[in-house]
From TrEMBL, chain A:
<keyword id="KW-0472">Membrane</keyword>
<feature type="region of interest" description="Disordered">
    <location>
        <begin position="1"/>
        <end position="23"/>
    </location>
</feature>
<keyword id="KW-0812">Transmembrane</keyword>
<dbReference type="InterPro" id="IPR012538">
    <property type="entry name" value="Cyt_c_oxidase_su2a"/>
</dbReference>
<keyword id="KW-1133">Transmembrane helix</keyword>
<feature type="compositionally biased region" description="Polar residues">
    <location>
        <begin position="1"/>
        <end position="10"/>
    </location>
</feature>
<protein>
    <submittedName>
        <fullName>Cytochrome c oxidase subunit 2A</fullName>
    </submittedName>
</protein>
<dbReference type="Pfam" id="PF08113">
    <property type="entry name" value="CoxIIa"/>
</dbReference>
<feature type="transmembrane region" description="Helical">
    <location>
        <begin position="33"/>
        <end position="54"/>
    </location>
</feature>
UniProtKB/TrEMBL annotation, chain B:
<dbReference type="InterPro" id="IPR008972">
    <property type="entry name" value="Cupredoxin"/>
</dbReference>
<comment type="function">
    <text>Subunits I and II form the functional core of the enzyme complex. Electrons originating in cytochrome c are transferred via heme a and Cu(A) to the binuclear center formed by heme a3 and Cu(B).</text>
</comment>
<dbReference type="GO" id="GO:0016020">
    <property type="term" value="C:membrane"/>
</dbReference>
<dbReference type="GO" id="GO:0004129">
    <property type="term" value="F:cytochrome-c oxidase activity"/>
</dbReference>
<dbReference type="InterPro" id="IPR051403">
    <property type="entry name" value="NosZ/Cyto_c_oxidase_sub2"/>
</dbReference>
<dbReference type="Pfam" id="PF00116">
    <property type="entry name" value="COX2"/>
</dbReference>
<dbReference type="InterPro" id="IPR002429">
    <property type="entry name" value="CcO_II-like_C"/>
</dbReference>
<dbReference type="GO" id="GO:0005507">
    <property type="term" value="F:copper ion binding"/>
</dbReference>
<keyword id="KW-1133">Transmembrane helix</keyword>
Length: 57, 167
């Protein structure tokens, strides 16, 4: 195999990989999103609760 | 870099909350002047009476202005020393008018004690060698328990006093 054809081959291989990533389906993160937001909202609500208690007293 | 749209939402939410918390913290510290109750005012824990605020006759409630009070408290296992009444009996209950400006100054002559006026924001740790102080206004009349919330020994649960806020 000549050097040139080897280069060609490797670049063709790279293009194939890029295409692979681009056409890759997005992972389903619905459950992760719900879990993250649940914890986030819980932290914010508890923080506001404690802060309100401090300001009220 | 590809970022999932849900990731964008929670990153925005997380960074946003962090900024809000930091702004509130900075506002409290630099604008409102909130600081730890023990601000490095020191005294000799073996001889607290050498400090004017903790001399026998200065313990308890002192009126220092028209509507200003100072409460000097010497904590030790397992008691809050609030001075003595006319008959020489130890004071276990002090009275403060509602809406008055009160500064609690307290220290300990032995181990670490707590100083928590239950139901209010008055909550400090008393460390040997340091004077803890808290300035506040008690607006709601009622009886509040001054309680030790740092485990200080076998009599810890008996360490308390009463602060009555009257109209």
């Amino acid at each position: 195999m000549s050097k040139q054809s080897a280069l060609k081959q490797s670049s063709a291989h790279d293009v194939h990989e890029v295409e692979d990533i681009e056409t890759h389906e997005e992972p389903n993160l619905k459950g992760t999103f719900a879990a993250v937001m649940f914890i986030g909202v819980f932290i914010v609500v508890s923080w506001i609760g404690v802060y309100a208690l401090y300001m009220y007293r | 870099m590809h970022v999932h749209k849900y990731e964008k939402i929670w990153l925005t939410f997380g960074i946003g909350s962090l900024l809000v918390f930091l702004i509130v913290l900075g506002w409290g510290a630099f604008y409102q002047g909130t600081q730890p109750p023990s601000c490095l005012v020191t005294l000799n824990p073996q001889n607290v009476q050498a400090h004017n605020s903790f001399k026998e006759e200065n313990l308890g409630v002192q009126q220092v202005g028209e509507n200003e009070y100072v409460v000097n408290v010497l904590a030790s296992a397992f008691n809050y020393d609030l001075g003595k009444d006319e008959e020489g009996a130890p004071v276990k209950k002090i009275r403060i008018p509602a809406g008055a400006n009160v500064t609690f100054q307290a220290t300990t002559s032995d181990v670490v004690h707590g100083f928590h006026l239950s139901g209010t924001n008055v909550n400090m740790m008393l460390e040997p060698g340091y004077i803890s102080d808290y300035e506040t206004t008690l607006d709601n009349p009622g009886e509040y328990t001054l309680v030790c919330n740092e485990y200080c020994g076998v009599g810890h649960h008996m360490m308390s006093a009463i602060v009555e806020v009257y109209e």
